[in-house]
């Protein structure tokens, strides 16, 4: 469990950021599903998920700073992120009709798009990869790509 990783390679840091994004989506899903608070879910993830071993498989260590930032921004900006997501969805598919995992993903990505530290194309690519992890061999990653592209162009038009 690493907060800042000065001795790690660029590849290790990227993997930790990717893991943090996946964990943020899982945490947001858990919060919606169980009505747990941000602090409760954050503590559980930091203590039991980051770098933990389950059935002989070691979970990736995540970037704690990015995880916390995405979680906090997604929660504090949820209403406006949801409105932005709704604008990106076709009229027949309002956010409430979307799979809860995708809702959590759009909230996490929407939060990260509000922070100018990461280029929007990187945010889109990373969350499309998260969608692939949850929905292998399905159309959801393409759907996620289209929705996030729309959201990114709205949030940060100068980057396109």
TrEMBL record:
Keyword Transcription regulation attached: yes
GO cellular component: cytosol
GO process annotations (BP): DNA-templated transcription termination; transcription antitermination
InterPro entries xref list: NusB-like_sf, NusB_fam, NusB_RsmB_TIM44
Pfam families assigned to the protein according to its UniProt record, in alphabetical order: NusB
Assigned keywords, A-Z: RNA-binding, Transcription, Transcription antitermination, Transcription regulation
This protein's record includes keyword RNA-binding: yes
Gene3D superfamilies registered for this protein in UniProt: NusB-like
Listed SUPFAM superfamilies: NusB-like (SSF48013)
Molecular function GO terms recorded: RNA binding
Record field: transmembrane: none
Domain NusB/RsmB/TIM44: 19-153
Function: Involved in transcription antitermination. Required for transcription of ribosomal RNA (rRNA) genes. Binds specifically to the boxA antiterminator sequence of the ribosomal RNA (rrn) operons.
Family recorded in the similarity comment: Belongs to the NusB family.
Official protein name in the record: Transcription antitermination protein NusB
Organism whose genome encodes this protein: Sulfitobacter brevis
């Amino acid at each position: 469990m690493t907060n800042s990783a000065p001795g790690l390679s660029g590849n290790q840091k990227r993997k930790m950021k990717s893991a943090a994004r996946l964990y943020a989506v899982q945490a947001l899903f858990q919060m919606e599903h169980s009505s747990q608070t941000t602090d409760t879910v954050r503590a559980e993830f930091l203590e039991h998920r980051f770098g933990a071993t389950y059935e002989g498989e070691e979970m990736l260590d995540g970037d704690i700073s990015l995880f916390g930032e995405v979680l906090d921004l997604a929660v504090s900006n949820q209403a406006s992120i949801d409105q932005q997501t709704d604008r990106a969805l076709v009229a027949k598919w309002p956010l409430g009709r979307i799979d809860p995992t995708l809702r959590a993903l759009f909230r996490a990505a929407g939060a990260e798009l509000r922070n100018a530290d990461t280029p929007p194309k990187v945010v889109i690519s990373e969350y499309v990869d998260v969608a692939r992890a949850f929905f292998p061999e399905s159309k959801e990653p393409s759907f996620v790509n289209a929705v996030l592209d729309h959201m990114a162009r709205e949030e940060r038009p100068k980057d396109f």
